[in-house]
Design a protein that fits this description.
Chain A: One of its GO terms (molecular function) is transmembrane transporter activity. Chain A: Keywords: Cell membrane, Membrane, Transmembrane, Transmembrane helix. The complex is a heterotrimer of chains A (323), B (517) and C (339). With 323 residues, chain A is an all-alpha fold. Chain A has helices at residues 2-11, 16-32, 39-64, 74-89, 97-122, 126-144, 154-157, 168-185, 187-197, 199-204, 209-235, 243-256, 268-286, 294-322. The two termini of chain A are 30 Å apart. Chain B has 3 domains: 5-239, Rossmann fold, CATH 3.40.50; 244-337 and 423-508, Rossmann fold (3-Layer(aba) Sandwich), CATH 3.40.50; 347-422, no CATH class. Chain B has helices at 45-52, 73-79, 96-101, 116-128, 143-156, 173-188, 200-206, 229-236, 296-303, 330-335, 345-348, 356-361, 380-391, 407-420, 437-452, 493-500; strands at residues 5-16, 19-30, 34-39, 60-65, 81-84, 161-165, 192-196, 209-214, 217-223, 260-267, 276-281, 285-289, 313-317, 324-326, 338-342, 425-429, 456-460, 473-478, 481-487. In chain B, helix 4 (116-128) packs across helix 5 (143-156) and helix 13 packs across helix 14. Chain B is globular, with a radius of gyration of 23 Å. Chain C has a two-stranded antiparallel sheet. In chain C, helix 1 (2-11) packs antiparallel against helix 13 (287-306), helix 2 (18-42) runs parallel beside helix 13 (287-306) and helix 3 packs parallel to helix 8. The N and C termini of chain C lie far apart (40 Å). Classes of the chains: A mainly alpha (323), B alpha/beta (517), C mainly alpha (339). Chains in contact: A-B, A-C, B-C. The interface between B and C is large, with 45 and 31 residues. The complex binds adenosine-5'-triphosphate and magnesium ion.
């Protein structure tokens, strides 16, 4: 798998920047100390980074489908799955793993199916539909659970211990990659890219653009469900308030990963790299101590790094179009 | 060679809101024929093509393609009908290869047979005349190559019925001939080919029959021998609108002796090309010709201040000081009264969400600014009306969106935009792309009038017959440089063609373009 | 006031399809009227000077914050730095005053800084197009982080700043503020003046028209000699300035600086733009439409509050209503009609 990933990085120039940034950050983190490169460090990192990686993956197919379809609803959707899981299922004594996983994945896919149908048949710009989804779910989440609380099912508590690299959380991540890998191997991936790059061209050439869009959304929904599972494992409870944060982080990760929000360009590898880079930036900043203003310095530095890497992206992209 | 009917439309009607694009359309085409569909801009040709392809559904009437009903592009693909739409649909962010095979497979499953890459490389080499890198992004390619990609995409599907909606409009002469060869091959294999075109020479050369549309009604079908410019014109245009006849002006040698208004020295289209000089006498019309990629496009864009030439300098006589002033940027061009009309209207012309009025007027706002950049609006309405009348633009309400106009009428709005500025020099980069014959004549007449009043015109065209009886001088580009200037008697097909292929002055060209006029 | 703005918009006969505009605007008005009638019927005390005043006051803040969002949407960008600049201005102003700057000078400093952040934003992001929103997010983080570092130097509270707010600033935007003796806060008038001026500028100046041109087609605009760089920089600067202004006025409203005051404006500004009918993809819409959107949103919220809905429920209802409201007049054509 890493071999194909490597080949992709060397072929696709939009991955140069995220891959380069990744290496730089990795060196910087190593330079700051060995904390991350121990079993516990890595296990903790996987635990913390997985929800972010999975939400970034969740919006990847949707953004790729074009029409400026940035899925703003992804964070609240993850939160929705999380709080309903804790309140409705666990709260009513349903804790069987199959039921929990089916609920998470099914709910994510169902919600995205609804959004896709609204986008296709009501024909309102996708970003407006997902903005609406964002607001609705943000509200509903707080109605389902007014403040963070509840407990995850017993069997999930050990997931969040962060003591082993090969935890079930890693399995969630690998599961998502596997799904994506299978899709990439089919014509769906190319149809998706073409739909995103120029929908009118794809439509007139006989691509079933509506079907492609629906599948893209549902795959995104499944990833959002997996993200919710990993998030539940991470906090071992329910939290209705983090939706907006995760949406912004996921979109940022996507852009840092070299995807184009106007469709056609991007992929799971880029989004994953983007998300890992975001995690590494936060991790790196947390190794410094700025005293009382620490939080603010982190925020500022994070913003500046974002700006910097976007500028490098621009440089690479504009070089590419000239070439 | 069957002659069974493959495409049939009976009593088809289609309206877009108030606009009735097709009123009563009857049409039949047979296997193994090239059938042309002709008509003025906005007469409903593209609408007809879209209905056949299943993109649009007719309001009334019956359409059968190879005996089946086609309700969507997916159906069309199944039946074996492929359409090359008027707008060049290419995904800029995807590779050439992906663009060629888009839509060939199912949602998940590949329908692949054989080696697609070899097949793709072969067909592009044959059509474009040189090999094209399959992995580069299509966005960086010029319009003519994009047009070839679209054509190649259609031909790769081995269609039973192929519809080409003005597909040769972006192609130069040499390319058009290659396209015709391809069409001949398909015809020989028994396919039905429907072509929509405004190029009479092309029609005469290749069409077996032609069906004429006028204001959404099919007014008749001509057999091969009846296809002549006059026949077509009289059927396309109602008598009362047939105003300008084909008055042939002679090339005016005298115009070329006037003082120069624009000079360019030491220009080159690319590093290795030979340097050349160019001058434009006031009140003259200079045609610019050349096969694709011979530097004429870069040249005219450099004159407009859009791109920087490799070295050299462009100077224009300033209206105020009567001195030659260097032109280096778009701002200089605007100040010196140099207007530019692009043939690629979708990309660098229209503002799709804006009204027809805004699209025309936006070119003059800058000249009508009061203090603080406030636009003096009252002067705009008469100007708008003048340009619409002058170019006979067929519009509904000025406040309708420009996209509600047919392609040709959109182009006329852009030409109006350039005229509205009262420029000294007007640069037209293949402006007649997709413009109907009547309008072309109107355009030539207006440009002549403009020149007689002292304006100067540089007119780049990919159709050489456009220059004859219109231009005072024709400058032919070859190998990135100005290869030859032709005046007077030399402005005729053979010498222009010879120069376009870089041949000596009196050499004859191996192929002849039959032209009945 | 709205009608004035709208009139200048419609009055510009060539502006954009008058019929479409009439349609979307009359539907907007109907929606607003419908909400007002519903409120009058369902909520006691809905039709009262107090309620009108509070609706207009809240609308003024949202309206001012949405100026930049509208302009950005017209070129197809989103400005996500708005909430952060609002929050930053809201705490920077009092801490500058604590540091001894006279209030007007401090306000000018804050306004200039806001404009500068906006200008950076525009200058850096015009090449990014669709990705610009992340650039604005990054700059927003950086700006608010820097402000908080400054305000918390020598104090424990980074996020909240207490300082005596001068009476005139409080009067500008407090609920019981007076406008030359009239019983409404001057911020409403400020908003009205800015709205009318902006509506007029958009339709009657070269700058306004070039904004629409860039939003409609970048290449075609470039051919007309319109500098995309200039347009992006100016609109983002305006957005920064307006956000800073909103942040400062909010200080008068609440009386104490709090960095989080801007947070609700992250997506409500987008919602107001969208409900008004400005396309987020650029080229179509205007501030007049956003004014309508702001009013609809504020009246709707007020109605929901009157009906006793909690904040989360309000948010959910607003979210649910956005799609149908936009669908009434801003449905995109079917792909069949776009070929
Ligand atoms: N999607 C649409 N919405 C509204 N009006 C349309 C639409 N498509 C076409 N029309 C109108 O229908 C008429 C026919 O248009 P059509 O594109 O078929 O003309 P055409 O014969 O192809 O012209 P051209 O030679 O300029 O390409 C025109 O008046 C045009 O304005
Ligand atoms: Mg047409």
């Amino acid at each position: 798998m890493s071999a194909t990933a490597f080949r992709q990085v060397t072929q696709d120039r939009s991955l140069y920047v995220p891959a380069g940034l990744f290496l730089v950050l990795l060196c910087a983190v190593a330079f700051r100390g060995q904390g991350l490169f121990t079993n516990n460090g890595l296990a903790g990192a996987i635990l913390v980074a997985t929800p972010l990686i999975l939400t970034a993956l969740a919006i990847t197919p949707i953004v790729m489908a074009g029409r400026g379809a940035v899925d703003l609803s992804v964070g609240p959707l993850m939160g929705f799955v999380n709080v309903t899981l804790i309140t409705w299922l666990v709260g009513n004594g349903i804790t069987h793993p199959v039921a929990i996983i089916a609920w998470a994945v099914g709910l994510g896919a169902a919600f995205q199916l609804v959004q896709a149908l609204v986008i296709i048949y009501v024909r309102v710009a996708p970003i407006i539909v997902t903005l609406s989804g964002f607001l609705v779910l943000s509200g509903v989440n707080l109605m389902v659970m007014s403040r963070p609380g509840g407990v995850a099912p017993d069997w999930m508590l050990s997931w969040g211990a962060g003591t082993s690299v090969f935890s079930p959380v890693l399995l969630l991540l690998l599961g998502a990659f596997a799904i994506w890998g299978v899709l990439r191997g089919t014509m769906f991936y190319r149809n998706l890219r073409m739909t995103g790059a120029d929908e009118r061209m794809a439509y007139t050439s006989g691509v079933q653009v509506d079907v492609v869009r629906i599948i893209a959304h549902m795959v995104g929904g499944v990833f959002a469900g997996l993200a919710a599972l990993s998030y539940t494992a991470l906090i071992s409870s329910g939290d209705p308030t983090q939706g907006s944060t995760y949406t912004l982080q996921a979109v940022t990760a996507l852009v840092l990963g070299g995807a184009s929000l106007s469709g056609g360009r991007g992929g799971a590898l880029g989004s994953t790299l983007g998300a890992i880079n975001m995690f590494l930036i936060s991790y790196l900043l947390s190794t410094f101590n700025f005293g009382t203003v620490s939080g603010f310095v982190t925020q500022m530095a994070f913003g500046l790094i974002l700006v910097g890497s976007l500028l490098v992206n621009v440089f690479v992209i504009s070089r590419r179009t000239v070439a | 060679m069957g002659s069974e009917i493959t495409v049939r439309m009976i009593d088809v009607a289609k309206a877009f809101g108030e606009t009735r694009a097709l009123k009563k359309c009857d049409f039949e085409a047979r296997a193994g024929e090239v059938h042309a569909i002709v008509g003025e801009n906005g007469s409903g040709k593209s609408t007809m093509a879209k209905i056949m392809s299943g993109v649009l559904h007719p309001d009334a009437g019956k359409v059968t393609i190879l005996g089946e009903k086609v309700a969507s592009p997916v159906d069309a693909k199944r039946v074996g009908l492929t359409t090359i739409f008027q707008e060049v649909l290419v995904a800029d962010e995807a590779s050439v290869f992906e663009n060629l095979y888009v839509g060939r497979d199912g949602v998940f499953r590949s329908q692949s047979t054989g080696d697609r890459r070899t097949e793709a490389a072969e067909i592009l080499a044959r059509l474009v005349g040189k090999s094209v890198d399959l992995d580069q992004l299509a966005g960086s390619l010029p319009l003519s190559i994009k047009q070839w990609i679209v054509i190649a995409r259609a031909i790769l599907r081995k269609p039973q019925v192929l519809i080409l909606d003005e597909s040769s409009a972006a192609l130069d002469l040499d390319s058009t001939l290659r396209l015709h060869a391809e069409i001949d091959r398909l015809r020989a294999e028994g396919a039905t080919i429907l072509i929509v075109t405004h190029r009479i020479a092309e029609l005469v050369r290749i069409a077996d029959r032609a069906t004429i549309l006028r204001d959404g009604i099919t007014v008749g079908t001509l057999g091969k021998d009846e296809i002549t410019e006059e026949n077509l014109l009289s059927m396309m245009t109602p008598a009362d609108r047939r105003a300008s006849d084909a008055t042939e002006y002679a090339s005016r040698k005298k115009a070329l002796e006037a003082p120069l208004i624009l000079t360019a020295t030491g220009l080159a289209a690319h590093r290795s090309a030979r340097l050349f000089d160019f001058d434009l006498p006031k009140g003259s019309i200079v045609g610019v010709a050349g096969l694709d990629g011979q530097g004429q496009d870069a040249f005219i864009r450099a004159l407009a201040g859009i791109i920087q030439p490799f070295g050299g300098e462009v100077k224009v006589r300033s209206v105020d000081t009567d001195k030659m002033v260097p032109l280096r940027s778009l701002d200089d061009a605007a100040n010196l009264g140099v207007s530019y009309v692009s043939g690629d209207r979708k990309r660098e012309g229209i503002f799709p969400q804006q009204s027809i009025f805004e699209n025309l007027a936006i070119g003059v706002y800058r000249k009508k600014l009061g203090p603080l950049g406030v636009i003096r609006k009252p002067t705009l309405k008469p100007m708008f009306k003048r340009e619409v009348d002058r170019l006979r633009i067929k519009i509904g309400s000025p406040s309708n969106r420009i996209t509600s106009l047919s392609g040709g009428n959109q182009q006329k709005v852009l030409i109006g935009r350039a005229f509205a500025n009262d420029p000294q020099v007007i640069l037209l980069n293949d402006p007649a792309r997709g413009v109907d014959l009547g309008t072309k004549r109107d355009l030539y007449r207006e440009l002549r009038l403009f020149a007689e009043k002292g304006g100067s015109v540089i007119y780049l065209s990919s159709e050489i017959e456009e220059f004859i009886g219109f231009a005072d001088r024709v400058d032919v580009f070859f190998g990135g440089t100005l290869f030859r200037s032709l005046t007077g008697e030399e402005i005729a097909e053979a010498p222009i063609l010879a120069a376009m292929f870089g041949k000596a002055r009196d050499a004859s060209v191996d192929f002849d373009l039959e032209r009945t006029a | 006031m709205i009608s004035t703005v709208l009139n200048t918009e419609i009055g510009a006969a060539g502006g954009s399809s008058a019929l479409r505009k009439h349609k979307s605007i009359s539907i907007g008005f109907c929606l607003l009227a419908g909400l007002l009638i519903l409120g009058a019927l369902l909520v006691p005390g809905f039709v009262s000077p107090q309620n009108a005043r509070s609706i207009l006051l809240l609308a003024a803040f949202l309206g001012l914050a949405s100026v930049g969002q509208t302009l950005c949407a017209l070129v197809g960008a989103l400005d996500l730095s708005i909430p952060y600049i609002i929050g930053g201005a809201n705490i920077l102003l009092p801490s500058l005053m604590v540091a001894g700057l006279p209030a007007p000078v401090a306000m000018i400093v804050v306004l200039v800084l806001g404009t500068l952040v906006g200008a950076c934003n525009g200058a850096l992001s015009f090449r990014l197009q669709g990705q610009a929103l992340i650039m604005s997010l990054g700059l927003g983080f950086a700006a608010v982080g820097a402000v908080q570092i400054y305000t918390s130097l020598g104090s424990q509270f980074g996020g909240t700043v207490f300082a005596p707010v001068p009476g005139w600033l409080r009067n500008l935007s407090a609920f019981n503020g007076k406008f030359f003796g009239l019983p409404f806060p001057p911020v409403i008038v400020i908003w009205a003046v800015i709205a009318v001026a902006l509506g007029w500028i958009m339709h009657n100046t070269w700058f306004g028209r070039s904004l629409y041109a860039v939003g409609g087609s970048r290449t075609a605009a470039a051919r007309l000699g319109i500098s995309e760089f200039k347009v992006w920089t100016v609109i983002h600067s305006v957005s920064g300035a307006m956000s800073a202004l909103t942040g400062m006025l909010l200080l008068g409203f609440s009386g104490g600086g709090f960095v989080g005051v801007g947070d609700p404006y992250l997506f409500t500004t987008v919602a107001a733009v969208v409900i008004g009918g400005t396309s987020l993809l650029g080229g179509a819409g205007g501030y007049g439409a956003t004014v309508l959107g702001v009013l609809v949103l504020t009246v709707l919220t007020s109605l929901l509050v009157g009906l006793g809905l909690s904040f989360p429920a309000q948010q959910a209802v607003v979210g649910l209503l956005i799609v149908p409201m936009v669908a009434i007049y801003a449905r995109s054509p079917h792909i069949r009609n776009q070929i």
